[in-house]
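[audit] Reproducing an earlier prediction to check determinism. Same input, same settings, fresh worker. If the tokens differ from the archived copy the diff job will pick it up downstream; this log only records the rerun itself.
[audit] input (109 residues):
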Amino acid sequence: MPYADPEPDDPQELVGVEWPGDESVTREMAESFADEFAQLGLPRAEILALYRQPEYSGAHRAWRLLGDDEIARIVDESLAVFGRFTWVVTDSADDEPEPQPLRLYRRGS
């Protein structure tokens, strides 16, 4: 079986479906995206920019339906809860020693 040509009865084949929804479903979806982006440590401006990018189809659709003001309010709520920490990933220098694991000891042992 070729890699790019799945069998017709392949259970791993991706299938997209649509579910009916209303504004409350769209709002919950937008809140979930905002929570996830805030937990990743993204700043407000970057999160709002992600909603405007068509490549993020779910977030973009929520932005089109709810508008700038509502999305900004949702993002602000998420950042108030999850935006306290920012993750920073840095590369270590090649000559830096490997970190040693922490050793935990019980008192009196």
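[audit] rerun output stored. Observation attached for the diff report: The chain has four helices and no strands.
[audit] end
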